């Protein structure tokens, strides 16, 4: 299967219209506040640091470039060709490789695994953006990419993030400027139940080896000047049998 054209078009429209400036996208926080803390949770559970690192749902590549400073082989993949083109343009030194990938396309995911071999996989805020029918295929894609030796870290908004987002969107003063395009393009963050994530991963043949909670920092601020951070949960998974 593959994602619906509506869903793909929504992301393509979002990335075509998103400003180029650093931090202009709601979730595009600096790596010191995102991928950095995530790696501190992830690396103790990696069984092979030499495996390629895949940033699944890389967007404009901010976190991918950070990963490329720490691992020899890093590939960022995203559903949106516009996102991939932007990621490439912001990586003139070619520290990472960027490719368009529909992660619900089983054949395309298998081809990527054939090219890379087993990989470690970083997934930040992708599953909770998926439409319901695409969630299990995405979990299956993670399982294909890690193979038998890799591990994956998934960081997803918790259920508790949805009322926070809805509160921001319905504020009488209007939604924060960086959040408005998310809803304007029909993207629906925070739609996955907390218990659904490990269930999806288990159905894909993956075992949870570590889990926890950590606020997911955004680039937006409240009127009082405090940075908006959303409740999130994280899971490290792999094949342990």
Automatic annotation (TrEMBL):
One of its GO terms (biological process) is methylation. It holds the Pfam family Methyltransf_25. One of its GO terms (molecular function) is methyltransferase activity. Keywords: Methyltransferase, Transferase. It comes from the Bacteria. The keyword Transferase applies. SUPFAM superfamilies: S-adenosyl-L-methionine-dependent methyltransferases. InterPro entries: Methyltransf_25 (IPR041698), SAM-dependent_MTases_sf (IPR029063). Residues 54-145 form the Methyltransferase domain. This is Class I SAM-dependent methyltransferase. It comes from Streptomyces melanogenes.
């Amino acid at each position: 299967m593959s994602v619906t054209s509506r869903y793909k078009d929504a992301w393509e429209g979002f990335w075509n219209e998103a400003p180029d400036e650093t931090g202009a996208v709601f979730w595009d926080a600096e790596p010191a506040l995102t991928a950095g803390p995530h790696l501190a949770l992830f690396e103790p559970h990696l069984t092979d640091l030499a495996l390629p690192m895949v940033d699944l749902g890389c967007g404009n590549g901010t976190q991918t470039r950070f990963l490329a400073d720490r691992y020899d082989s890093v590939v960022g993949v995203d559903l949106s060709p516009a996102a991939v083109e932007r990621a490439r343009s912001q990586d003139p030194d070619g520290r990472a490789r960027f490719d368009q990938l529909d992660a619900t396309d089983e054949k395309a995911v298998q081809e990527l695994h054939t090219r890379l071999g087993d990989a470690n996989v970083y997934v930040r805020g992708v599953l909770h953006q998926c439409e319901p029918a695409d969630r299990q295929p995405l979990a299956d894609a993670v399982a294909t990419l890690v193979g038998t030796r890799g591990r994956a870290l998934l960081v997803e908004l918790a259920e508790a993030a949805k009322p926070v987002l809805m509160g921001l969107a319905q504020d009488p003063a209007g939604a924060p400027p960086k959040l408005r395009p998310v809803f304007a393009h029909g993207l629906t963050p925070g739609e996955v139940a907390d218990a659904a994530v490990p269930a999806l991963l288990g159905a894909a043949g993956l075992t949870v080896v570590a889990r926890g909670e950590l606020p997911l920092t955004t680039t937006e601020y409240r009127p009082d000047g405090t940075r908006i951070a959303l409740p999130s949960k994280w899971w490290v998974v792999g094949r342990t049998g």
